[in-house]
Amino acid sequence: MAKQDYKTLELPAKYKPKKSEPYMCAEQLAYFYQLLNTQKEELISDSDSVLNAVRLAEKTDAAGVGDESDNATYNQDITMDLRMSARNNKLLQKINAALDRIENGSYGYSVVSGDEIGIQRLMARPLATMTVDEQEEYEQRRG
Question: From CA 44, how far away is CA 6, in angstroms rounded?
Fold first, then answer.
């Protein structure tokens, strides 16, 4: 099966990657490709909603509608929405990087050692870039 088939491969509705399959076979790549693209679409949709909420709050604030308490609430909402938007943008960058790794054949392998990250870990954290041991070591060094 050609490497690019993962983009068009139709998986059974309840398909889940299994350890018994060849690691990062077309089915597994298709599963993670579809999962990551779904997450990406949801984030983009959420980002549009957040931006619309910020614009509405800014218009309401600029129009002078409400008292000081209302304005403080609007400002707090804007701040929280902007933080959420920044968080979503970082997550979107990570998703795009994972999709790039699927494209170039490095998805599922550690960026540190090149070792297999493992299906179980990727099922729990599809954006993982290191093995569990490498991630733990990295976190210990950071803090």
Answer: 23
For 85, residues 6+ apart whose C-beta sits below 8 A from its C-beta are: 47, 50, 51, 54
pLDDT digit string, tens, across residues 67-90: 777 767 777 877 887 888 889 999
H helix runs in 8-118, sequence order: 26-62, 68-104
Lookup result for tokens 């990657």: 17
29 Cβ partners below 8 Å, 6+ apart?
3, 6, 102, 107
Compute the distance between CA of residue 122 and CA of residue 130 in angstroms, rounded to an integer: 10
Contact (CB, 8 A) for 128 and 94: no
| pLDDT single digits (tens) 16-69 | 999 999 999 999 999 999 999 999 999 988 777 777 766 776 666 666 666 777
Structure token pair of residue 130 = 């290191």
Tokens of 75: 């400002």
Q: How far apart are CA 131 and CA 51, in angstroms?
A: 36
* Residue 114, phi-psi category: left (phi > 0), alpha (psi -120 to 50), beta (remainder): left
